[in-house]
Amino acid sequence: EILLAIESTCDETAAAVVTRDGRVLGECIATQEKLHERFGGVVPEIAARAHLERILPVIDTAMTQAGVQGEDLQAIAVADRPGLAGSLLVGVVAAKSLALAWQKPLVAINHLHAHLYACQLSQPSGESVYPAIGLIVSGGHTTLYLCEDPINLQYLGGTIDDAAGEAFDKVAAMLSLGFPGGVEVSRWATRGNAKAYDFPRSKLHDGSFDFSFSGLKTAVRYAIVGPGRQDFSSLELDDSTKADVCASFEAAVVDTLVGKSRKAIRQHGVKRLLIGGGVAANGRLRRDFAAAAEQDGFQLVIAPPELCTDNAVMGAIAWKQIDRGQFATLDLDITPGLQRGF
Ligand code: ATP
Ligand code: MG
Ligand code: FE
């Protein structure tokens, strides 16, 4: 049994053909990094246009690689929420058109549930990783959930301002390290001293499961240029300062994530933590969470690095919805924003 999954929530156009038992028969991801790089962030109009140009070739590539045709599919799944409106629309319209043309059922995926489901796909035995505490650390979200199963998630808390990935991207921009910044900042961080700057661990002990990264971002700004300066283009920092800033910033983000996640595990008595989203590819994050898991005695499942950033393989979550008879109809619409983390 196979299905086609489509992902176009932000700036990756992706399609995958996945079997019910989790095998990937075909996959294609067209990233738009080069298109958005000079703007230092994703430009929604450019993203939508690029999705439109790429969606059919991307689907075609995944299907050809898998050696399957429309008639071979059990269903067509697409992420319909959350994300950029124009981006989501391209994937949803493509999925609906193919579902109609091929007369196949349609499944609507929550992109955040899929980010966490990437953890399930790391289990070779297929053993369930639920129930668990789920932490999503991505470009748009930093959220903790109590996950009963892949689809029933209870919101525990989330960022009240920037997402963790967004903070990485903004710090990278301040240091002129390129976009997307997460990978660059973490590369520089490996050569720096994480104790060089004492950056704030905001909200760490406030009793909530919320996060805040805008104060940290401002602290980084002050550390490198002092208050008030807006233009970073002429800033000259030596490499060791850059590396120290990156390492200290990264440590502050990871400390906060680890602290809150530990608390969620303790409070809810769930002995397993799932982590998904682009920032989960970060080396320090993976190391520090592994140490915390060993110390506190919980099972840690982080999405495989290649399934942390946006991809369509994690759309395999659609099988769980198919099993429950949760299908979408051809009047499916996009849902760009979420209410309190859903
Ligand atoms: P969302 O899923 O919330 O809609 P998104 O899909 O744009 O947002 P992802 O693709 O999951 O986000 O992740 C992208 C983010 O991950 C970017 O902000 C990027 O800088 C960050 N990132 C990627 N690799 C790393 C890394 N090694 N260390 C830190 N951050 C990283
Ligand atoms: Mg992206
Ligand atoms: Fe994402």
TrEMBL record:
Residues annotated as binding substrate: I136, V137, S138, G139, G140, D169, G182, N282
Pfam families found in the cross-reference section: TsaD
Domain called Gcp-like: residue spans: 24-316
Catalysed reaction equations from the record: L-threonylcarbamoyladenylate + adenosine(37) in tRNA = N(6)-L-threonylcarbamoyladenosine(37) in tRNA + AMP + H(+)
Record keywords, A-Z: Acyltransferase, Cytoplasm, Iron, Metal-binding, Transferase, tRNA processing
Annotated signal sequence range: none
EC annotation from Swiss-Prot or TrEMBL: 2.3.1.234
Entry's localization field: Cytoplasm
Residues annotated for Fe cation binding in this entry: H111, H115, D310
Needed cofactors: Fe(2+)
Cofactor, how bound (note): Binds 1 Fe(2+) ion per subunit.
Keyword Cytoplasm: yes
PANTHER family the UniProt entry points to: TRNA N6-ADENOSINE THREONYLCARBAMOYLTRANSFERASE, TRNA N6-ADENOSINE THREONYLCARBAMOYLTRANSFERASE, MITOCHONDRIAL
Family: Belongs to the KAE1 / TsaD family.
Function: Required for the formation of a threonylcarbamoyl group on adenosine at position 37 (t(6)A37) in tRNAs that read codons beginning with adenine. Is involved in the transfer of the threonylcarbamoyl moiety of threonylcarbamoyl-AMP (TC-AMP) to the N6 group of A37, together with TsaE and TsaB. TsaD likely plays a direct catalytic role in this reaction.
HAMAP family: TsaD
Protein name (database record): tRNA N6-adenosine threonylcarbamoyltransferase
Organism this protein belongs to: Neorhodopirellula lusitana
Lineage: Bacteria, Pseudomonadati, Planctomycetota, Planctomycetia, Pirellulales
The encoding gene: tsaD
